[in-house]
Amino acid sequence: MSSPSRPVSGGLLDPKQLIASLPDAARKLDPRGMVRNPVMFVVEVGALLTTALACRSPGVFAWVITVWLWLTVLFATLSEAVAEGRGKAQAETLRRTKTATVARRLVDWRPGATDAAEEEVPAAELRLGDHVLVEAGQLIPGDGDVVEGVASVDESAITGESAPVIRESGGDRSAVTGGTKVLSDRIVVKITSKPGETFIDRMIALVEGAARQKTPNEIALNILLASLTIVFLLAVVTLQPFAIYARAEQSIVVLVALVVALIPTTIGALLSAIGIAGMDRLVQRNVLALSGRAVEAAGDVNTLLLDKTGTVTFGNRQAAEFLPVGGTAVEELADAAQLSSLSDETPEGRSVVVLAKETSGLRARDEGELGEARFVPFTAQTRMSGVDIGGRQVRKGAASAVAGWVAGHGGRSGADVQAVVDRISQEGGTPLVVAERADGAAARVLGVIHLKDVVKHGMRERFDELRRMGIRTIMITGDNPLTARAIAEEAGVDDFLAEAAPEDKMALIRREQAGGKLVAMTGDGTNDAPALAQADVGVAMNTGTSAAKEAGNMVDLDSDPTKLIEIVEIGKQLLITRGALTTFSIANDVAKYFAIIPAMFTVVYPGLEKLNVMRLHSPTSAIASAIIFNALIIVALIPLALRGVRYRPSSAAVLLGRNIGVYGLGGLVLPFLGIKLIDLVVQFIPGLR
Amino acid sequence: MSGTLAGWLQVLALVAALALSYRPLGDYIAHVLTAPRHLRAERLVHRLAGVDGDADQRWSAYLRGVLAFSAVSVLFLYGFLRLQNHLLLSLGRPPMPPAQSFNTAASFVTNTNWQSYSGEAALGHLVQMAGLAVQNFVSAAVGIAVVAALIRGFTRKETDRVGNFWVDLTRIVLRVLLPLAFVFAIVLAAGGVIQNFHGAESIPAVAGGHQSVTGGPVASQEVIKELGTNGGGFYNANSAHPFENPNAFTNWLEIYLLLVISAALPRTFGRMAGDHRQGYAIVAVMALIWAASVAVVTVTELHSVSSQAGHAAGGMTEGKERRFGIWASALFAASTTLTSTGAVDSAHDSYAPFGGGMTIFNMMLGEIAPGGTGSGLYGILILAVVAVFVAGLMVGRTPEYLGKKLRGREMKFASLYILTTPAVVLVGAGLAMALPGERAGMLNPGPHGFSEVLYAFTSAANNNGSAFAGLGVDTVWYNTALGLVMLFGRFLPMVFVLALAGSLAGQAPVPVTAGTLPTHRPQFVGLLTAVVLIVVGLTYFPALSLGPLAEGLQ
């Protein structure tokens, strides 16, 4: 998992990317596509209008405005093209795996049949329910489930992870993805996706942005932006009769410039790039969101359901502590515990060796170093394991088993041991008692090893962050309530669901949703599928079954359940970026008014020169500066749009305060400086006075 | 007592009185709007009108009620004005001409009370009482009814019902407006406002000669004129007329009355929403804007003195009553233009450019601080929706206000609302300025003349009704254009408000968490104030720059 406060960010913007995206950007100038973005469409119409006027009565001013209006539109399409460009390379690689795969279709295959007829067909012609045979070294022709055999599969084409994974028929590891490669053995795969709708197809569409539909928030924001555009259009159109009355009739070029300066072009230009980049940030983290809606919903999530195993804890019990009894030194206990675990290759056994090294500095000894050591393996009958070295016997195991062994060898397991054992059990841990018998002496208990489900490092901080964001975490586990409570407390989750059956999970989701909450969860098994479908954000693990992948609205290719937290952050960051740039865009208008209005009317009302607080050189330079600033700010903000506004988990009030400070006040002040600086340069353009 | 001290005392007493009535009046209106039982009188009204008082309406049915009731009111009032010469107590006045009748009917039904006629010269007592005063009551009640539906949109869950228009209307008139009007009419009459049925009387004037003075039932009409944020004067001189507003006390009381209901409605909102802090946040925004506006108008009137005589009098005194002075006039002017009342006790046309400009800007704010009865609250709630939307995005969640999500549908109605009034104002003023004949209606040249036209359309579209004067508006064109502007400016926004109410009511509420944008803190108050000022400022800045700004920055 990633470190607790790893900021969500994308890559930096490479200038080469800008240039490489220019042809695409130019293609997007087509008004038929542009009309979907009302703000930029108005700018484009304005640019067409000023072009016509500049051609009819050429002048430096008219041409400067015209050129910069076109640049404004171009910068907008450029931002979109750059955002899309990032996915293009990935799509190319994916597409290569798709082409030219030949499938070996089995005709009338039945389970257990070995003599099914085989025919070779192009992968694109496979239908739902077809069975195909794939052998070592071949690409799997389409998405499906393994129905026979077991194989190791290289999924690096999709996940980027080079280590092969095992896929086998039955169970939760049966799903295979088209385009991945079988490395060993042979399997029969039942195709579960239609041609053109495979995982790879969806992934290509996704990274290219082709499948992008506007998300609910984006639609709402677009409505607001469109209505602001209409208000400003009206304000400028009706200004002309007022101006004529004031004997200050304005040229169409100036009016178009005013409209473009006022309508929210900054956010209008960057809106779609923000959306594409948000999806891209997920793809970079190896998460495929099957809809933009799901990404937005992730930002709204109120409740996170987290599987204990793999998400909250490492998923296996580990030695956490040595608790000596009866005056035994902790080193002595550690030594004995280590000796008894040397041949124990289970994760528990390994963890005892590791803990002995960490706490007492005991180096792991090779079995050869010990002379004649005889290891006693664990069996279900003895419930103990251990080692005999010469006359010394060491045993470790379940409390009752070890107590029996000690009693059988003349020793006694005291009440102090039982107390420690009980305490560990109550805390949800597993006690392993260690006992020793020196040559001929009575056996004695050295102490207890506390084995427990170890909570991943940094999870408590993560959950604290989530709580500040207003998100409740619920841990789901099959453990008994006692163990579950102990782990829940240690990890710092808000609540837990113990002894959870799939139906309980479903009921919990329904209950949360009935209270108006949005629920996110991860899952991989077929029995998770209904809950994944019911959850507002369901992240299926790529290792999971195809039923789970179909039911969820995101797939995590790394199969890392902790990713859910990052997904939530990316969802929030997406919305914050939109809101921040909208605020910035609107706040910019104030400075533009102070540039343009005095420039328009000082001729007739000299008093309005007092509004020229920036002391701009001349009316024409003032208007040109405002328009140039308006265009340049789009380019300047492309990296921010792609990267997203910096997001640190905190409460809504704190977030709002910071973002208003940066983007509201910043948006108010920055253009005053920017326009003034540009004016200092453009005043030297000959013909612009 | 110095003028400054008296001025401060008036302002502070006003704030204190409004603060005192905030809780009881707001709570009482909330009670009236939510009480399960009808009064006997109300059941009688329902039976007479043939409505089912226990039905709960969809937003569309509620809207149909509003529109049907208002349409009937316009027709009725139009007929009344056209036929007044045939009726009792007509004082021999002739019927009002058609265009002017349409304008007046639209004006009173829309709670605008723009007057292109001179009350005492054009109307008889019966039309004043049974025509205009009735509309003063019911048009104010319609505004409160609409905001009640919007509040229910926020508070109800998963229903398509937003209340019953007929019940709301009846209750507000019978239980809120009539009792308040009755009490304060007596107070006004005791303060010297006349209440009689006299016709024109010839009275020897102070400067010699004779003066014809018309009496009438003034106190009863004056009280609802202020209380219902109507503003149409019995006399042409409106609240500057000594029969309507005889002294400093009645002047102060009239300011209080025109603010009191709108200022208390946020409490109603807070109570119905189950969170008084929400009401305090809204009323804080209203109070901030109101205080700033009063300060600007007062300071400019005290300091921008254009004449020698003004210097001697200690400020801009042209167009102001000596009885009230600069402080009280400025307080009245700011309050009346911020409440959609439009009653005037001084001539706004004569204010210093920035003072007069401020009264225009007040109306441009959309009558929200505290605004018209009901319409002020729904206006500011819509702006709050926009503020919450932008701010909500900035905290990384689908924006939600009072637990209701603001998505495409909600933003569509809020955006249309925000769009409507500026569109009506700007298109109307643009047309008037583009038509040479109508432009000639201006009595002043230059930017001041333009301010007069801008004022007229801003006043009509925002249903304020005050006039800058100095513009000849009793022409067929202006009567018709302004009449239409008033109707569009009143009812289109109501359509969007009720549609929004329906859309909100249908939602299940989202629980509040630490990730929810808090809408009761000073932070939100500041944000909403900024949104109001910036959205309005940006929309009207070009127009204002050619009027008051051009005039003031000389």
TrEMBL record, chain A:
PROSITE patterns referenced in this protein's UniProt entry, alphabetically: ATPASE_E1_E2
First-listed, main subcellular location of the protein, grouped into a coarse class: membrane
InterPro entries per UniProt: ATPase_P-typ_P_site, ATPase_P-type_domA, P-type_ATPase_bsu_IA, P_typ_ATPase, P_typ_ATPase_HD_dom
Record note on quaternary structure: The system is composed of three essential subunits: KdpA, KdpB and KdpC.
Record function comment: Part of the high-affinity ATP-driven potassium transport (or Kdp) system, which catalyzes the hydrolysis of ATP coupled with the electrogenic transport of potassium into the cytoplasm. This subunit is responsible for energy coupling to the transport system and for the release of the potassium ions to the cytoplasm.
Residues passing through the membrane, by range: 60-78, 219-246, 252-276, 590-608, 620-642, 662-685
Subcellular localization: Cell membrane; Membrane
Annotated binding of ATP, by residue: D344, E348, F378, T379, A380, Q381, T382, R383, M384, S385, K396
Catalytic activity of the protein: K(+)(out) + ATP + H2O = K(+)(in) + ADP + phosphate + H(+)
EC number in record: 7.2.2.6
Record protein name field: Potassium-transporting ATPase ATP-binding subunit
Bilayer topology term: Multi-pass membrane protein
CDD domains: P-type_ATPase_K
Domain P-type ATPase A stretches: 115-208
Keywords of this entry: ATP-binding, Cell membrane, Ion transport, Magnesium, Membrane, Metal-binding, Nucleotide-binding, Phosphoprotein, Plasmid, Potassium, Potassium transport, Translocase, Transmembrane, Transmembrane helix, Transport
Name of encoding gene: kdpB
Active site, renumbered: D307
Binding site for Mg(2+): D524, D528
Recorded family membership: Belongs to the cation transport ATPase (P-type) (TC 3.A.3) family. Type IA subfamily.
Pfam families in the cross-refs: E1-E2_ATPase, Hydrolase
UniProtKB/TrEMBL annotation, chain B:
Taxonomic superkingdom: Bacteria
TM ranges: 61-81, 129-151, 172-194, 249-269, 281-304, 375-395, 416-435, 481-504, 524-543
Keyword hit for Iron-sulfur: no
Key words of the record: Cell membrane, Ion transport, Membrane, Plasmid, Potassium, Potassium transport, Transmembrane, Transmembrane helix, Transport
InterPro entries associated with the record: KdpA
Compartment annotation: Cell membrane
Similarity comment text for this entry: Belongs to the KdpA family.
Name of this protein: Potassium-transporting ATPase potassium-binding subunit
Higher taxonomy: Bacteria, Bacillati, Actinomycetota, Actinomycetes, Kitasatosporales
